[in-house]
Design brief:
The chain is an alpha/beta fold. The protein folds into two domains: about 5-175, Rossmann fold; about 175-370 and about 400-450, Dihydrodipicolinate Reductase, domain 2. The chain is built from 15 helices and 17 strands. A nine-stranded mixed beta sheet has the order 15-14-13-7-12-11-10-16-17, sandwiched between helices.
């Protein structure tokens, strides 16, 4: 029999205290205590619900299902085939029934027997679901990006903090040793004084307009709810397909649902690492100026090429650009082309991306960060970091405050491109300075009845 919600949180916290020790230092504890490969009874496991179980969400479900200290109890999706796939997978894994699927995320979040959830939906739904999850006191592993506007992101932060829930942002590069090491090299001035950061992100794709099609049966796919807070438009399969042309869903490149490569589809990952290595996780730039190319026709309408320059109070410049343009910025260093983050200092540079790390001088690659130097929080597994924080009630490696700051930069980039002029930003007030038009763009309207 399950404990009450209050007793359950006390139990999870006590388990975390055992793992960390009274002084906060890690002990070597048996795996049985941590619940890993332990066969813990369900009453002592972290019970989880999964909101969005399509391509990426289904991957999260499969991974969390494999942790012996997790009990998967529910899933939610607007597509019947994904709901059924989740039920079949979980019941097959547990050799029994008891896992329930929902179409309405609010029904799942209302359950008091669920400790934590994943939020892995199209971007325009993230904030509404995250806020509702926090109000229901659910810890959450929350996929990037944070929100569709700066206002929404700040609302998520306020609600998460008000209810004291654990929040892990899906910027999983923070749990990759290569990215952490590159940031530590920059922070400890192993490349000299940092003066420039070049962030390279994949550009958005283009896609032609599609003829409208009959809306599917609501039980098979709830299209109106899929649109949710976004404006109503006629249905086409490609608009909301989970995957299109061998890549993420086309919706990630449609402005009503995402910022495309500039933000949610890729840019947020590398902008977040740039913030980490610049030591500006709790602030942001003070000036932004950039240009970009936005398709004038077609379903996809997020920037396909861009270059935005940010100036920080320290004088550091961060250039966020699509890969082709970023390559021109960094060609003098003869570094690998493609998505990545290049930190340039007065005495060298370090470039990091998924699967690679380069530096000059090359001796930096085997450098050791000394005990008196800056050491960033370490995680080798983003999901396990989340689970450990659910037990300990400590901050994750990518908490909501960090998510807001990184997400905000992506939105500022988009605004600067669309307005085509230099903008000044107040990172303390989190608003543009003396620019009413730009500040209005920090908020997006929501289709009734949805609202923050």
């Amino acid at each position: 029999m399950r404990d009450s919600s209050t007793n359950r949180r006390q139990f999870l916290k006590s388990m975390g205290a055992v793992a960390l020790g009274a002084a906060g230092f890690p002990y070597i504890v048996p795996s049985e205590v941590l619940g890993v490969n332990s066969g813990l009874p369900p009453s002592e496991k972290i019970t989880m619900g999964f909101i969005g179980v399509g391509s990426m969400g289904g991957g999260h479900l499969r991974t969390f299902l494999g942790y012996d200290d997790v009990q998967a109890v529910a899933a939610c999706d607007l597509r019947a085939m994904f709901r059924q796939r989740a039920v079949d997978r979980v019941e097959r894994y547990y050799s029994g029934k008891g896992f329930k699927a929902y179409r309405d995320y609010r029904e799942l979040l209302a359950r008091d027997d669920i400790d934590a959830v994943t939020v892995v939906t199209p971007d325009h739904w993230h904030a509404l679901i995250g806020i509702e999850a926090a109000r229901n006191r659910k810890d959450m592993y929350y996929e990037k990006p944070l929100a569709m506007s700066v206002t929404e992101g700040k609302a998520v932060r306020e609600t998460v903090n008000r209810y004291g829930v654990v929040f892990q942002f899906g910027a999983q590069q923070r749990s990759d040793e290569k990215f952490r090491f590159a940031c530590e090299l920059a922070l400890n001035e192993r490349i000299g004084k940092l003066h420039t950061i070049v962030v390279s992100s994949y550009a958005s794709m283009t896609f032609p307009n599609q003829p409208s099609q009959p809306v599917p049966d609501k039980d098979e796919f709830d299209y109106d709810t899929w649109l949710g807070p976004a404006q109503w438009v006629p249905y086409t399969y490609e608009r909301c397909a989970s995957r299109t042309m061998g890549t993420d869903g086309l919706w990630t490149h449609i402005y009503d649902y995402s910022l495309g490569g500039l933000g949610g589809a890729w840019g947020i990952h590398h902008v977040d690492i740039a913030q980490w290595g610049n030591g500006t996780e709790d602030t942001g730039p003070v000036e932004i100026e950039g240009t970009g190319v936005i398709p004038a026709d077609g379903l996809a309408d997020t920037p396909v090429e861009w270059e935005v320059e940010h100036t920080y109070a320290s004088g550091v410049k961060m250039i966020h650009a699509s890969t082709r343009i970023a390559a021109k910025r960094s060609r003098q260093f003869a570094v690998r082309k493609g998505p990545g983050i290049l930190f340039i200092g007065t005495e060298g540079w370090v470039l990091v991306g998924r699967g690679y790390l380069q530096a000059e001088p090359k001796s930096l690659l085997t450098a050791t960060i000394g005990p008196d130097e800056v050491h960033l929080p370490a995680s080798v597994n983003h999901r396990r970091d989340f689970l450990e924080c659910v037990r300990s009630r400590k901050r994750t490696i990518c908490p909501v405050e960090t998510a807001v700051r990184s997400d905000t930069i992506c939105h500022m980039d988009d605004i600067a491109i669309r307005l085509g002029r230099k903008l000044r930003w107040d990172p303390d007030r989190e608003e543009f300075i003396n620019d009413e038009t730009a500040n209005r763009m920090l908020t997006r309207p929501m289709r009734s009845p949805w609202r923050l």
